[in-house]
Amino acid sequence: MSTPEMLSERTAIQAQLTFENRLRGGSAGFFAIAGLSLLNSIIMLFGANFDFAIGLAITQVVEGAAMGFSDHLSGSALALLKIVEVLLNLGIVAMFAAFGWLVRRDHAWAFIVGMGIYAVDTLIFVLAGFWLGVALHVFVLFVLFQGLQALYALRDIPTA
Q1: 134 with 125: CB under 8 angstroms?
Q2: What global pTM score does this model have?
Q3: How far is 1 from 160, CA to CA, in rounded Å?
Q4: Alpha helices in the chain (DSSP H)
Q5: Structure confidence by residue, pLDDT tens digits, 30-84
C-alpha cells in the first residue's frame, strides 16, 4: 500500500527527471545551433547554395560579406580573407557550443546570454524576410527557455 509520503517522493522524483530532460534539451539546443552553423559554414565555404535554417544568420552574414569582398581581392589577400571568415565563424560556433557546455554545469547566465544572442540573430532573419528561419529560431528559443525554467526548477528541488 502506498503512503502519502511514498507518493510525494515518487512525484518529486518524476518532476526531477522531467526537469533534467528539459535541461538536457535546452543545452542540446545550443549544441545543435553550433553544429548546424558549422555545417552551414562548411557548405558555404565549398560553394553550395543551401543551408540549415536553424543555424545562425550571423555566420551567413559573415560569409556573404566575405563573398562580396572576395570579388575585389586576389592572391594572398583573398587567402587572408578566407582565413578571417573561417576564424570568425569558428569563434561564433565555439561560443554557442560553450553555452551548451556551461548550461550543463548549472550556469543560468549562459542560457540567458545565449538566448539573447540567438534572439538578435532571429532579427537578422526577420530583416531578410526568411520566415522559415524565423519560425525555427522561435521554436529553438522556446526549447531554450524551457531548459532555463527547468534549471531554476531543479535548483528549487530539495536534495536528500
Answers
A1: yes
A2: 0.84
A3: 23
A4: 4-45, 57-70, 75-103, 108-128, 131-156
A5: 999 999 999 988 888 887 777 777 789 999 888 888 888 878 878 888 889 889 9
